[in-house]
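Task: encode each sequence below as structure tokens.

Item 1
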Amino acid sequence: MNKDKLFNSSLELGLNRVRNSYKQKYDIWKTAVDYSVWVYFIIPIIGVMLYHYYNLWMGNLEWPLAINEFVVIIMSFLFVCLSQMKIYVEEGDQLVFLQRKSNLKSLFLLSYWHLIIKSLFLNGLFVILLFPLLIQYLTYTATEVMMIYCILSVVSLCTAVFNHKVYLTVKSIRLYILLACLYILIFLWMYAFYVYTINSFYIFLVQLLISLMVFLYLSYISIRDSKLSSTIFELNARYESMVLHFLLAKSAFIGAPEFVYTKKRAKKFRFLVVGKNSVFFKQNNKLNGMIEVVIKTLFRDHSWLMMYGQIIVAGVVSLWFVQGVWLKLIVLISFIAVLYQFAFVFWYRVFQHSFFELFSSVKLIGASKKGLYILMLPGTLFLSGFTGYHTYSFLGLLVSLVMGLFVMYTIIMTASNLTSRFLNKG
């Protein structure tokens, strides 16, 4: 087998792995997102986004007036910092490519080309979303928007490659020091671009050329020193987890596989409030004991705790952009219902353990009522308080808190009564 044929076969292998990766994500998406998710969440969210996007172009919205250039810098910085890359190699390649270094480099090269195409596409979407804001409200020109797209694309490539290289070669505290220095440098680089460079086309070309040279140099040394190690496979698992975790963690209840990356730690981290001997309730009985088990399980499960925070962040963002009191109330009630669904699914997941078979269904329902109150209370108070304060200042804060608690109580009691009737009939 000659060299060209070897290269073609490794190229075909890499392309096949890329296709399989996207096919796997699509299959999981179909499994996790059924018609109810489309009807109650995705379609309404898309509708609200299209409504706001249209009004951004028309200049009819008032909230963009509060956005200045520094907010755009922060948004661009955060978007660039999300850049990650994956090398499309597998553990079996350690044996296959033991004597075929050129084929292994071909897979690395393919991974970098895939990173470039993905970066150009994602940054294009990001700039398209910001386009009416930049043109209508911040008075950028179309040429300056294209300059933003170019610099974002190249800087995101540098960030992804540098992140990957650092994780492969540096360990312990030096890793975090280098990453902190990287993010500080990226922020300063983006700040200099928006404040100074964007006003001069020639300075922009110099900054773009420097960024491009950094990316090419990092890519060259990474491909030149390409070799398989356990760290690469761990980084690939972390990458897949970042892409799929938010979706899969919520789909585990309906039967989809849980793909959750767990970072290896020498010592397991625990929150101070949930230590081994922490006691939440003064009265020591079976009801409080079951509730305490579930609450501690949530605090010690990083994936579900992050999911809880993601729901709150999504609610705050939606309430911030939605206009109109009644529409805000509908969004608030919807997210309280989402919090209930989250709490119920997590509660059900914990109660599947054989330990809870020792208790009767009546006690489980009683514990569920009180436990769901406790699990939903922080998120409900935060979202309700944000809605009231953002709409009617402090007076609205008090009214919204009362209304949010009433909605939460109504949802829990209605669901518990329906469950009790179903069990009694059974």
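Item 2
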Amino acid sequence: MPFTCRYRCHYNAATMLLRLPQRAATAFLVSMVFALPLACRSTVTTFPNQLRDASGNAILLDDVEAIVNDAELTEDEKREQLRELGIEDEELIDALLTL
């Protein structure tokens, strides 16, 4: 049984688009071309207790992960690079290195 409200709707969106006047269909397609990148853009999420370096920039987990997973670095070199990244808490550094 089709969905009914005031009129029976038998058309999907593509069929409805084809039934619009040429100008309305063109305007709709152009607006979707401009709206899609805005809807799909990536955003950076901030957290209230986010780690920050000395200059106030956020420390990204991708940067930490790259250091921790670098097989060419010794544990002491990893510790030093984490400190240079802005992580000063030794317990946090220990926890990151044990992951």
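Check on item 2: Confidence is low (pLDDT under 50) at residues 1-8. The chain is about 55% helix and 0% strand.
End of task.
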